[in-house]
Amino acid sequence: MIKTAEAAFLVLSEMPGQINDSEILDLLYTRELDWKYMDAIKSLTAFSDETISDWFNISVKTLREYRKPGSSFKNNVKEQLLLLLTLIKHGTSVFGSHTAFDNWLRTPNFFFDQKVPASFLNTVTGIRFVNDRLTAMEYGDNV
């Protein structure tokens, strides 16, 4: 049996390096997205079930129900799941580690109106905005 951390890295390796609509749509309609994808987010970040369920606009109970065999995500949850995993991959690339990216997500930032970037991850637009900031950082803007 594959350990959780190893499984998370395998899931992450399947994600594009940047948010790209055509790649996200392809994954959305060609992959069977199950709990291992959600579990990868839980393994790659130190965020609680409460925070993660907030990102998906679902209750903690619903998040935990997805663990059950045979459960399937709604399309909007699948889309956010893919976007978040791609964002984590991108952020890890920019910061060099999951821990450093996780810390950045939790730190108030000027470019986010002194809010933590993680507070923007509950919408597709917010995920894209955080991703755009990461891209700007790759080119020397913002820390």
Automatic annotation (TrEMBL):
InterPro entries: Xre/MbcA/ParS-like_toxin-bd (IPR024467). Pfam families: Xre_MbcA_ParS_C (PF09722). Residues 91-140 form the Antitoxin Xre/MbcA/ParS-like toxin-binding domain. This is Putative toxin-antitoxin system antitoxin component, TIGR02293 family. It comes from Cnuella takakiae.
